[in-house]
């Protein structure tokens, strides 16, 4: 079984900042490996480097961490696809150190006949009409009820139907309420074995619309097992020996879990319902939703990779994970409903991606049979000459031909000489063709010079600083005239470290303005103290109401769901006398605890009254949070919630809060109107850029190391 190459870099807190040298050593080892005397990176590990299919570095010219968080909601795919994120502190122009000065970033010609031309990558409008998805659902975006199977479609695809001859004794879910476009979706998947009776369930998983697992149970078959189908199900005889749950128990639990208007989602869901011996009237089958011609169907594994950018059913793992499959099917349906048929067809072009995937597999197999140095890379044109030694020179010893794509005028050194008309879209199309043929690729996108002016960057900096300040700030009150400020500070201090606390005197009754040092503390205060009695008064707790804060709840929700925060919880109420060793000892009883991060004041070095705990699984984090809320430690009551800010973001927020906000303010106010107009366009450009990254990412082969670099504006 082929080993999977993967990166391990579970850093938390201050360690989540990396230097130029650290990134350089990661790329060097990934490209060269031990056989060329490259050393493993000092700060992370690449396992099975020899199985790397390639390295892709995407450079977003002129953009920095500031842009990422100013346009956090627009970078929807980028933040969901990439599981590791680090603050990058370059000591020089890092792209130049990669390419070398004067590098000619021109599109490279591919070997003839191996890839389609860029014009062929985009379906024409006439082709859209012939697409089976458009023929089935039309071009317009519709609600979920338009994608549920009709009774005739269910009958045609072997779904259990009430009253049909083969469904005698089947149990109905009793979900008979009228469906609407706002009915809840549930993902369902089962693993089966072969018994003397036929196909019987051995494992059942159900997830809700947010992907949360509601049911994941092993089931003991009623009949004698002939084949456990372990290769696909992962189920063994030993696993089922202690299991007492029977099919009837699962049927009852599903009936109790599903509301009366539930819509079930699955991939070839008819097999699951037949094995469960259950009838459900409203279903979305993703194997039919993403329609193909002549009755063919896409596999769930392919759709998850092509549409969601997710790897499921990994070969190195024994059997499928039904929860993972149920979640993938659910997200595929949500994507289809959210985007609509036209976007699914025009932007994904699934048939082309499937063909490209098969070609890549054929190419990889052929390359394995060729002698060293005679791979496909030799069919590419010679790389552009580099005027001074750089990272890419290292690749010369391997005979690899690096791929360099970019736009003209990307910086003052004229690093990227290319056709003036070359746009980000054209670069993407060329990358989709050429990247699969190259072991090392650098793709450079740019927003354009008009968006990178210094005064616009300064304006963005002030807007981000101002919004972060508002998100860290809460107002509490009203209080009585002679309220005790010490009591207020003590109660709100239990939510986390306070930066400032002031009394608001402009109101009829006194209010208190509290600015915290971490986002989690402010959110915890809003969630736990709104409506509570503090200092003898029943108070309301809220954030400032400004135009910039109208999407605050959306932003908080997205931060909480960020892959960086998966399995990480925030704990407040710690006594400052406790050391990291004390905390490790106190928290040692928590299951699957992986890392503890104790934030410190970056000036004094003293730790704050809170910490972050990272767990091996999201469920362990949920269990720990429930355990810790109200837990007494050394006489102090703890409070806990899901993390919102990854380690690098916590550090950055601290720096933003302690920077001089007045610096250059005349620039901000003079240019604010111009910035407002420009920022609207910038949002659209960033959204397009995010789509480009998604498409490029989804076209990559398995075991490809992909790095997206925001190199900054200096």
Structural description of this entry:
This protein is α/β, with parallel strands linked by helices. It folds into 4 domains: 6-99 and 401-450 and 703-709, no CATH class; 142-339, 2-Layer Sandwich (Nucleotidyltransferase, domain 5), CATH 3.30.420; 457-561, 2-Layer Sandwich (Alpha-Beta Plaits), CATH 3.30.70; 566-643, 2-Layer Sandwich (Alpha-Beta Plaits), CATH 3.30.70. It is 36% helix and 18% strand. It has 25 helices and 28 strands. The strands form 9 sheets. Strands 7, 8, 9, 10, 11 and 13 form a 6-stranded mixed beta sheet that branches. Strands 14-15-4-28 form a 4-stranded parallel beta sheet, sandwiched between helices. It has a 4-stranded antiparallel beta sheet with strand order 17-18-16-21. Strand 17 (498-504) and strand 18 (511-516) form a beta hairpin. Helix 13 (300-308) crosses helix 14 and helix 17 (424-434) runs parallel beside helix 25 (665-699). It is globular. Mean pLDDT is 81; it is low at 101-122, 366-389, 408-421 and 660-674. This is REXO5 exonuclease. Pfam families: RNase_T, RRM_1.
Just name the CATH architecture of the largest domain.
2-Layer Sandwich
Instruction: Give a quick account of the main beta sheet: strands, pairing sense, barrel closure.
Output: 6 strands, mixed
Name the overall outline: globular
Ranges where pLDDT stays below 50 over 5 or more residues in a row are: 101-122, 366-389, 408-421, 660-674
Taking Cα atoms only, what radius of gyration do you get, to the nearest Å? 28 Å
CATH class type of the largest domain: Alpha Beta
* Structural class category: alpha/beta
Distance between the termini: 47 Å
Oligomer category: single chain
User: CATH homologous superfamily name of the largest domain?
Assistant: Ribonuclease H-like superfamily/Ribonuclease H
Mean pLDDT: 81
Amount of helix: 25-40%
Tally of DSSP helical segments = 25
In CATH, the topology of the largest domain is named Nucleotidyltransferase, domain 5
Strand fraction:
15-25%
* Beta strand count: 28
The count of domains is 4
Protein name: REXO5 exonuclease
Keywords: Exonuclease, Hydrolase, Nuclease, RNA-binding
InterPro entries: Nucleotide-bd_a/b_plait_sf, RBD_domain_sf, REX1-like_exo, REXO1/3/4-like, Ribonucl_H, RNaseH-like_sf, RNaseH_sf, RRM_dom
GO molecular function, one term: RNA binding
């Amino acid at each position: 079984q082929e080993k999977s190459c993967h990166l391990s870099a579970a850093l938390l807190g201050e360690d989540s900042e990396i230097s130029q040298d650290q990134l350089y050593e990661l790329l060097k080892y990934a490209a060269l490996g031990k056989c060329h005397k490259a050393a493993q990176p000092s700060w992370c590990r690449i396992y099975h480097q020899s199985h790397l299919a390639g390295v892709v570095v995407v450079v977003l010219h002129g953009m920095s961490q500031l842009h990422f968080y100013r346009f956090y909601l627009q970078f929807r795919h980028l933040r969901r696809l990439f599981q590791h994120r680090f603050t990058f502190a370059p000591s020089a122009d890092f792209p130049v150190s990669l390419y070398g000065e004067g590098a000619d970033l021109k599109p490279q010609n591919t070997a003839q006949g191996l890839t389609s031309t860029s014009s062929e990558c985009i379906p024409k409008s006439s082709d859209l009409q012939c697409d089976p998805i458009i023929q089935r659902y039309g071009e317009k975006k519709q609600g979920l009820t338009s994608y549920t199977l009709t009774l005739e479609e269910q009958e045609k695809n072997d779904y259990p139907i009430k009253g049909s001859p083969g469904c005698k004794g089947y149990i109905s879910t009793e979900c008979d309420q009228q469906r609407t476009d706002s009915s809840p979706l549930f993902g369902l998947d089962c693993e089966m074995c072969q018994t003397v009776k036929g196909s019987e369930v051995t494992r059942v998983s159900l997830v809700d619309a947010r992907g949360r697992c509601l049911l994941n149970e092993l089931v003991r078959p009623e009949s004698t097992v002939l084949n456990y189908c372990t290769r696909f199900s992962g189920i063994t005889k030993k696993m089922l020996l202690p299991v007492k749950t029977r099919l009837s128990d699962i049927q009852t639990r599903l009936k109790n879990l599903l509301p009366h208007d539930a819509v079930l989602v699955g991939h070839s869901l008819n097999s699951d319902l037949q094995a469960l011996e259950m009838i459900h009237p409203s279903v979305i089958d993703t194997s039919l939703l993403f329609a193909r011609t002549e009755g063919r169907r896409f596999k769930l594994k392919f759709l998850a990779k092509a549409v969601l950018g997710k790897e499921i059913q990994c070969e190195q793992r024994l059997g499928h994970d039904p929860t993972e499959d149920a979640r993938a099917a659910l997200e595929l349906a949500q994507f289809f409903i959210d985007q609509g048929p036209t976007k699914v067809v025009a932007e994904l072009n699934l048939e082309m991606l499937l063909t490209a995937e098969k070609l890549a597999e054929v190419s990889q197999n052929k390359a394995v049979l060729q002698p060293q140095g005679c791979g496909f890379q030799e069919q590419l044109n010679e790389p552009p000459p580099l005027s001074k030694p750089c990272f890419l020179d290292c690749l010369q010893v391997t005979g690899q031909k690096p791929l360099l794509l970019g736009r003209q005028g990307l910086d003052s050194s004229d690093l990227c000489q290319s056709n003036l008309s070359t746009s980000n879209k054209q670069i993407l199309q060329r990358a989709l063709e050429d990247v699969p043929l190259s072991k090392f690729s650098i793709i450079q996108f740019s927003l354009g010079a008009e968006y990178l002016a210094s005064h616009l960057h300064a304006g963005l900096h002030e807007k981000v600083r101002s919004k972060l300040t508002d998100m860290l700030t809460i107002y509490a009150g009203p209080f009585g005239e002679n309220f005790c400020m010490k009591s207020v500070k003590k109660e709100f201090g239990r939510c986390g470290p306070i930066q400032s606390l002031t009394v608001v005197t402009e109101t009829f009754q006194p209010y208190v303005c509290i600015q915290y040092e971490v986002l989690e503390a402010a959110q915890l205060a809003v969630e736990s103290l709104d409506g509570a009695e503090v200092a003898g008064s029943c108070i309301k707790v809220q954030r400032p109401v400004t135009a910039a804060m109208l999407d605050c709840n959306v932003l908080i929700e997205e931060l909480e769901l960020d892959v960086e925060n998966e399995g990480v919880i925030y704990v407040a109420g710690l006594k400052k006398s406790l050391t990291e060793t004390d905390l490790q000892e106190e928290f040692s009883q928590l299951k699957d605890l992986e890392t503890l991060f104790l934030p410190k004041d970056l000036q004094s070095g003293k730790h704050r009254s809170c910490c972050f705990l990272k767990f091996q699984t999201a469920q362990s984090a949920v269990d720990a949070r429930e355990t810790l809320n109200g837990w007494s430690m050394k006489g102090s009551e703890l409070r806990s919630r899901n993390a919102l800010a990854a380690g690098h973001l916590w550090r950055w927020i601290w720096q933003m809060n302690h920077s001089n906000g007045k610096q250059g303010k005349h620039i901000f106010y003079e240019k604010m109107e111009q910035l407002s107009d420009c920022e609207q366009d910038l949002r659209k450009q960033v959204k397009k850029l995010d789509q480009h990254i998604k498409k490029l990412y989804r076209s990559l082969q398995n075991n490809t190391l992909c790095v997206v670099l925001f190199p900054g504006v200096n």
